[in-house]
Structure formats: structure tokens, C-alpha cells
Structure to design on (236 residues):
């Protein structure tokens, strides 16, 4: 039996980009669905789920920011954000809204393909990994419980909805409480080696993770910042 193909959603109002990227991805064995505006994409993604979405920022009817926000209210679908080089604020905002990664335009299609494969691989490992820091793919640190096989994060019994990247960051920190993790180490843990990600990307993810935990526990302070060094998970 042939392995199931992954399905990728491309959302961009530039039809030339859509056609070009679709051709590349299909040549690499992916199923591809394309949308030219955020509104039709939201309807399509909710009615016909995909494995990963690539979203542009500036689109008619509903821009990428609003689309991402609406998706995150309903789904932890892996998302790669597209932005122009002069849209640094949008890049950071996209990460804070829950994007797993971003790529700046103009971009190499090989780079996009590499990022798509890396994110799908991280998502797949996170879902099916039976081993890990503890038997059964689970990790418990005081009030924190991580279940890798279910992609579930609990804090004091309350569910915390984390994206793939956020889950891997929490796992990397909680696996070695008290140990300082540099941003480079966290990038390797969340994105894989040999993938360049700006340090501020990690900072944005950590801010979003803290916000999610504080929505269920306003006193949450387990993830500490060591300025100029990195982050660590407080020992109980």
C-alpha cells in the first residue's frame, strides 16, 4: 500500500505564485488545494481539513492575520506564514497569533519545500512518538503534563491548546528543569538542525506560550527568561 499523501493548502491572492508553488509541490508528491482569499480558505479548511497551510498576509475579503486567528480558535493546524521583507511587525504578530513558521517574499520554492517537510515531520513525530522522556510518550513535571501521543498539554488538569512548535518548546524546557536552554538550542528542538530562524521568533513563541498558560492560571511563572542567555523551566 502506498503511503498517504499529505495535503497542503496554499492561500494567496497572487495566482502566479499559487500556480508555481502548486506545480512544485505536486511534483514532490503532495496533494494541493489553493485559495485566493481568506474567507474562502477558512470555509474550505474547516469543511475539508488539510495537513498544513501556507498563508499570505495581504489578501482580499479576509487577510492572513484574521484567517490565522480564526483558524487558531478552532484548530492547531500547522501553519507557515508568508510575508514581505518589510513586514517585520507582521511576522512577529503572525507568530504571536500562532503561526509555526514564516518565510519572507520573494522566497525560494526549495526553501518553502524544506520548511513544509520539516514542519510535517515535526508534527508527525510529535503525534506518533511512543518513546520520549518517560514511558508512553508522556512527561510530568509537577502541575504540567505533556502527552506526546495525543499532542496534549495539561496544566493543573486544564487543557492548554499548543501548536506543534509551542508544544516542542515546552517539551524541550520541561524535560530538563533548571537547565538553561539558549535560543539556538530551542530553535534546534522546535525546528530541527540546519534551519535558520531568527532569535526573535523563539521570543514570540515563548510569549504566546506564557499567555496561554496564564489564561488558565494567572500566576503561571514556570518559564523564566535569562536575559542575554535563554530560557529555563523552573524546578518544582
Amino acid at each position: 500500500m502506498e503511503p498517504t499523501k499529505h495535503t497542503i493548502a496554499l492561500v494567496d491572492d497572487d495566482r502566479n505564485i499559487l500556480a508555481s508553488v502548486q506545480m512544485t509541490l505536486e511534483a514532490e508528491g503532495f496533494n494541493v488545494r489553493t485559495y485566493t482569499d481568506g474567507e474562502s480558505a477558512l470555509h474550505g479548511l474547516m469543511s475539508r481539513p488539510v495537513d498544513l497551510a501556507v498563508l499570505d498576509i495581504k489578501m482580499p475579503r479576509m487577510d492572513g492575520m484574521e484567517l490565522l486567528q480564526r483558524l487558531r480558535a478552532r484548530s492547531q493546524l500547522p501553519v507557515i506564514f508568508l510575508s514581505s521583507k518589510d513586514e517585520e511587525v507582521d511576522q512577529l504578530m503572525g507568530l504571536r497569533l500562532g503561526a509555526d513558521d514564516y518565510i519572507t517574499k520573494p522566497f525560494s520554492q526549495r526553501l518553502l519545500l524544506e520548511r513544509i517537510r520539516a514542519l510535517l515531520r515535526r508534527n508527525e513525530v510529535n503525534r506518533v512518538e511512543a518513546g520520549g522522556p518517560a514511558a508512553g510518550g508522556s512527561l510530568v513535571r509537577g502541575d504540567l503534563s505533556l502527552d506526546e501521543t495525543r499532542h496534549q498539554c495539561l496544566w493543573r488538569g486544564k487543557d492548554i491548546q499548543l501548536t506543534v512548535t509551542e508544544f516542542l518548546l515546552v517539551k524541550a524546557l520541561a524535560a530538563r528543569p533548571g537547565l538553561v536552554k539558549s535560543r539556538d538550542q530551542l530553535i534546534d528542538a522546535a525546528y530541527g538542525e540546519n534551519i535558520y530562524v531568527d532569535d526573535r521568533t523563539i521570543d514570540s513563541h515563548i510569549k504566546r506560550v506564557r499567555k496561554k498558560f496564564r489564561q488558565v492560571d494567572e500566576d503561571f511563572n514556570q518559564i523564566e527568561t535569562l536575559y542575554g542567555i535563554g530560557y529555563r523551566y523552573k524546578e518544582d
Observations:
- Residues 109-128 form the longest helix (20 residues).
